[in-house]
Amino acid sequence: MSDKVAVDKATFNFGQWTVQANKSHILQSRCTQPLLCNVENEGTPVDKTVLCDFCLYEKELDLPQLPEMLFASNSLKLEHDNGFGIEFNALDALKLVDSKNDVMKVAVAEAWQESRMEDSKIRDVVKPFDWTYTTHYKGTSFGGTELFKVTPTEERIDVEKLKVKSKILFYQDIILFEDELADNGTAQLSVKMVGLF
Questions:
Q1: Contact between 70 and 124 (Cβ < 8 Å)
Q2: Which parts of the chain are coiled coil (predicted)?
Q3: What ranges in 128-196 are assigned the alpha helix state H?
């Protein structure tokens, strides 16, 4: 992503692990560099590394609209000294949103549709997708993935251990995206991490 935005970076090291949290502002609502991003229209393939964040999201996602508040530069990354780890970011999370099916209906949706069945313009415009932006995103693993294997577990968070008063060394709450769902509630995806002593 090529946007030159101010990003607040916080880094925390513990043992062989480094946590990096990036926080910035909401994504622009339109292209910020049309001369670079619109090259594809002239028949030349676009190098994704030069696209502005807005155009990258538009190109990578098959969603008819993006969440109202999208923090494209926000991320939380946990990396081992050997180069592998896990990262949480909005783009990868939104790639898992169902872009083909409208799985959630509000109470009045059926009545609204019936009242407009005769209007072909409305039927042709609506592209069904999961407008609640539900995602089953669990992070993006990277580097040296052959060194570890992700497997299902029955282990749970030790709640008793969390009750012990410990010094907080590192705390981050990173919002990846948020949407008010056309006044039908709120959808938000955020990542929180606490480092205790």
A1: no
A2: none
A3: 159-163
Total structural domains within the chain: 1
Is 121 part of any domain? Answer: no
pLDDT in tens, 16-49: 999 999 999 999 999 999 888 876 555 566 677 8
In whole angstroms, give the CA distance from residue 130 to residue 62.
11
Angle (nearest 5°) at CA 189 between 129 and 164: 150
Instruction: State if pTM tops 0.70.
Output: yes
Tokens of 106: 């509000």
- Its domain, for residue 16, covers 8-99+134-196
Contact 9, 20 (CB under 8 A): yes
At residue 185, what is the residue type?
A: G
φ, ψ for residue 144, nearest 5 deg: 60, 35
Strand partners, 178: 69, 188
| 150 part of a folded domain | yes
For 46, 168, 179, the CA distances from 182, given in Å and listed in that order, are 33, 38, 8
Using one digit for the tens of pLDDT, what is the confidence trace for 50-107?
889 999 999 999 898 999 999 999 999 999 998 999 999 999 999 999 888 766 655 5
Q: How far is it, in rounded angstroms, from Cα 197 to Cα 179?
A: 35
The Cα–Cα gap between 73 and 24 comes to 6
> 111 in a domain, yes or no?
no
